[in-house]
Specification:
With 351 residues, the chain is mostly helical. 67% of the residues lie in helices and 2% in strands.
Length: 351
């Protein structure tokens, strides 16, 4: 438990104090976010705001995680190292996209195909490695069984597992990326999700089959260290949110959104709560569905169901203040997270 508290506190402190220094550096270099001309007119006021703040999020997570292990003299686990590798890899894809934007001074970086290929490659490597490195009991970080709130009896072939992991990572990382359109929206929503996975991983550790004959015990590899990682990421979001909330002094960019989304997918896979991610990341799912509905409706009928997609921009176009949208969407995310955690606990207590 000490390691969990340390990782969260250290990453939050680093993100809080390092972000303003990074803002000064980015401002001096002129690395600012380009704003879409077809977006809400109020967004033009944000032109010139530094981007690539995801570098701080990833760095804070790494520092919080590894310093906590150094202080507690506990060795890192394979599961957590794989998740860290995933967020670094996805962060690199996002950084490439952000770098092209700031260097060429345009709102588009990598095209959609290039970005998806980069994400899929990183996710595929993560999936392949996650199926290796079994512990003494034969548990690998990623299971071959499909899971809801724990592993089911549905076993997938290795190839299908890798495809499933890639799809989960792509869906989650792009979901967070789509949500990152208003000051603090994606950061705050991700914070709630990582807190949920911290709590659930602690619970799985306390009820682990490793301790012996415990009714409805969990067969999860390295749950306590996954809680350390989740706490570190939650702390990074917490410290970064001070500077990212409205009016934002820095944006996380694709560097941060792809990394955070990948981290959530990895936690869902490794805690054996894959289908529960739909609730724990409920806001990201809702916003992704709004984009699918908008594109699908326009292609099929020539009409748009929203004034502008994603969903938060629809309410902006209706005249809602940005802060009001963000707070209400945080509330929706909180309700989704609460429902997910309730379902997780209800499955354990049922007879």
């Amino acid at each position: 438990m000490k390691g969990i508290l340390l990782s969260g506190a250290l990453s939050a402190l680093f993100a809080f104090f390092a972000t303003p220094l990074f803002i000064k550096f980015l401002t001096k270099k002129g690395y600012s976010q380009m704003i879409r001309d077809d977006g809400p007119t109020t967004h033009q006021l944000k032109r010139g705001t530094p981007t690539m703040g995801g570098i701080i999020l990833i760095a804070a997570t790494l520092i919080g995680y590894f310093l906590s292990h150094l202080i507690t003299a506990v060795a890192p686990t394979t599961s957590a190292l794989l998740v860290l590798g995933l967020i670094i890899g996805l962060g690199a894809v996002g950084f490439t996209d952000d770098w092209i934007k700031v260097r060429k001074q345009r709102s588009l970086g990598l095209n959609s195909i290039q970005k998806l290929i980069g994400q899929a490659f990183v996710a595929g490597c993560f999936a392949f490695a996650g199926l290796k490195f079994p512990d003494k009991t034969g548990l690998s970080p990623i299971s071959e069984y499909l899971s809801t709130v724990r592993d089911t009896s549905i076993k997938l072939a290795i190839g299908l597992v890798i495809v499933w992991v890639i799809l989960m990572v792509l869906g989650s990382s792009n979901g967070v990326n789509l949500t990152d359109g208003l000051d603090g929206l994606a950061t705050g929503a991700a914070l709630l999700s990582f807190v949920a996975y911290t709590v659930m991983s602690i619970w799985q550790y306390g009820q682990s089959c490793f301790w012996g004959e415990i009714p409805r015990c969990y067969t999860v590899r390295d749950p306590l260290d996954l809680a350390v990682f989740a706490a570190a990421t939650a702390g990074a979001c917490f410290g970064f949110l001070w500077w990212n909330s409205s009016p934002a002094r820095i944006f996380m960019g694709d560097t941060g959104s792809l990394a955070l989304g990948g981290g959530l997918a990895a936690l869902a896979l490794m805690t054996r709560t894959e289908l529960l991610l739909g609730l724990i990341g409920g806001l990201f799912v809702l916003i992704t569905l709004s984009v699918i509905a908008q594109v699908g409706s326009y292609k099929l009928t020539g009409r748009r169901v929203l004034r502008m997609a994603p969903l938060h921009h629809h309410f902006e176009m209706k005249g809602w203040p940005e802060v009001l949208i963000v707070v209400r969407f945080w509330i929706i995310q909180g309700l989704c997270v609460g429902a997910g955690m309730a379902l997780f606990y209800a499955e354990w207590v049922r007879q």
